[in-house]
């Protein structure tokens, strides 16, 4: 039975098995039907013996049954690992080699009868997977670098636009916020006004989404989801096929930036049902799926997921916008303070002038003579009396 193009649930390879594939790059099972042999441990050993890195370790009973259900008796599995987060790990020790790496995939070879692969051939396979992993890692890093350069270039242009015309410039000029990440539409809600780009909900729907965010996500600075329905938005059905996924960030207390993605109806061909009703669980041990018959699942009402690098770019723009608004607020506050001080200064001058005029009037209208003396004791003025 061909396996090309089939998808399998992630639970088919548990986390414990993924950890073992990181420690043992090539795993051979000669005969899944062979009875396992017990290992007698010396009582003087303080800790139980670990056979994680041994090729003699018997497969778990659940995995052996899994292989039998697939019609496979022997298997050879080779792990493909790449650097995690682009970190170049160097070192001679096994722990240093494993540090900073993650499991990218598996190359699985099946055989319908018992078969033993000699060590030289297994060693050659391990070397081949290492070379493949190095080349794959270069391709992954190159793609990430190209995307980062594109994002940085767009961010630089958007920052220049914000200096000239914040925040409307990033939606009214080219490039705009739609060029920052892959999306079908975008919108800016600022000062109770909306600017729309591409495929978006209606203005009333966007305002409703913003109200929902303010009510149900008031403690968050934003939201990203590939399905508004699963995120709990009650009006998701009214959006139709145009909008399904959304990335929204708050730029002020009530203003938002939105990116929208349409739903992607795609067919996923599964190698066996994810929840086969014929598979029973007695509650005491794990049971593998008994059915591997391919079935077709049509995934709807879900957009492409938002990648980490895309959300980093969105959050960076959010911080830049918040800083620009803070500068505007600070400038407005400074202008207001200077204006108030100037008003107070003018008011003080007017009050001083009024006091002076009143003193002159009182002196001139006094019924007794009044002399004005300077600091040297000389008379320099007097009233009419």
UniProtKB/TrEMBL annotation:
GO BP term, example: detection of visible light
Top-rank taxon, per record: Eukaryota
Stored PROSITE patterns: PAS, PHYTOCHROME_1, PHYTOCHROME_2
* Gene3D superfamilies the UniProt entry points to: 3.30.450.270, 3.30.450.40
In what residue span(s) does the PAS domain sit?
355-385
Q: What does the UniProt keyword field contain?
A: Chromophore, Photoreceptor protein, Receptor, Sensory transduction, Transcription, Transcription regulation
UniProt GO molecular function: photoreceptor activity
According to the entry, every stretch annotated as the Phytochrome chromophore attachment site domain falls at 1-130
One of its Pfam families is GAF
Its family remark reads: Belongs to the phytochrome family.
- The name this protein goes by in its record: Phytochrome O
């Amino acid at each position: 039975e061909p396996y090309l193009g089939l998808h399998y649930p992630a639970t088919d390879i548990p986390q414990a098995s993924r950890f073992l594939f990181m420690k043992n790059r090539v795993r051979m099972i000669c005969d899944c039907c062979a009875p396992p042999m017990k290992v007698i441990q010396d009582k003087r050993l303080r800790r139980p013996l670990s056979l994680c890195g041994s090729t003699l370790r018997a497969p778990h009973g659940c995995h052996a049954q899994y292989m039998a259900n697939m019609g496979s008796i022997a298997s050879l599995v080779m792990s493909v690992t790449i650097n995690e987060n682009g970190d170049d790990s160097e070192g001679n020790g096994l722990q240093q080699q494993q540090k900073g790496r993650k499991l990218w995939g598996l190359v699985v070879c099946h055989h319908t009868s018992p078969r033993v692969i000699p060590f030289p051939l297994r060693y050659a396979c391990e070397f081949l997977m290492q070379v493949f992993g190095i080349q794959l890692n270069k391709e992954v890093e190159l793609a990430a670098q190209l995307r980062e350069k594109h994002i940085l270039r767009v961010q630089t242009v958007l920052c220049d636009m914000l200096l000239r015309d914040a925040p409307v410039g990033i939606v009214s000029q080219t490039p705009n916020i739609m060029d920052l990440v892959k999306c079908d539409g975008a919108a800016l809600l600022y000062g109770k006004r909306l600017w729309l780009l591409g495929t978006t909900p209606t203005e009333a729907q966007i305002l409703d989404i913003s109200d929902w965010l303010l009510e149900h996500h008031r403690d968050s600075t934003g939201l990203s989801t590939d399905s508004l329905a699963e995120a709990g938005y009650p009006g998701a059905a009214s959006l139709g096929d145009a909008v399904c996924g959304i990335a929204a960030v708050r730029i002020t207390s009530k203003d938002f930036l939105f990116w929208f993605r349409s739903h992607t109806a795609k067919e996923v061909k599964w190698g066996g049902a994810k929840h086969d009703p014929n598979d029973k669980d007695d509650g005491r041990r794990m049971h593998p799926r008994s059915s591997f018959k391919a079935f077709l699942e049509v995934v709807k009402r879900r957009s492409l997921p938002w990648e980490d690098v895309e959300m980093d770019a969105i959050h960076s723009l959010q911080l830049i916008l918040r800083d620009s608004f803070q500068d505007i607020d600070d400038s407005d506050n400074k202008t207001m303070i200077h204006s108030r001080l100037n008003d107070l200064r003018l008011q003080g001058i007017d009050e001083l002038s009024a006091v002076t005029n009143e003193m002159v009037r009182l002196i001139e209208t006094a019924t007794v003579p009044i002399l004005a003396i300077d600091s040297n004791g000389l008379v320099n003025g007097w009233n009419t009396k």
